[in-house]
Amino acid sequence: QIRTADTALNLANANWVGSDGTVNTYYESSRTSIILDPSRTGQRYFQYRAFIDSDGVTTPIIESVKINYNP
Fold it and tell me: In terms of Cα–Cα distance, which of 18, 31, 35, 25 is closest to 69?
């Protein structure tokens, strides 16, 4: 999930959203493009969170995160 805001302070209070723009979904596929509403100007702060599962035997690993920004 991601959240964006115009300031670091507002980021802490922003809603986490997934692929349909609600808290009820997640970005579940790698290389998924995230397109924000163009009217959201000034949203220069971005935060993501990852939910990972384990089978109880192996430890899950996040190997990399890549974010490209195209204004």
Answer: 35
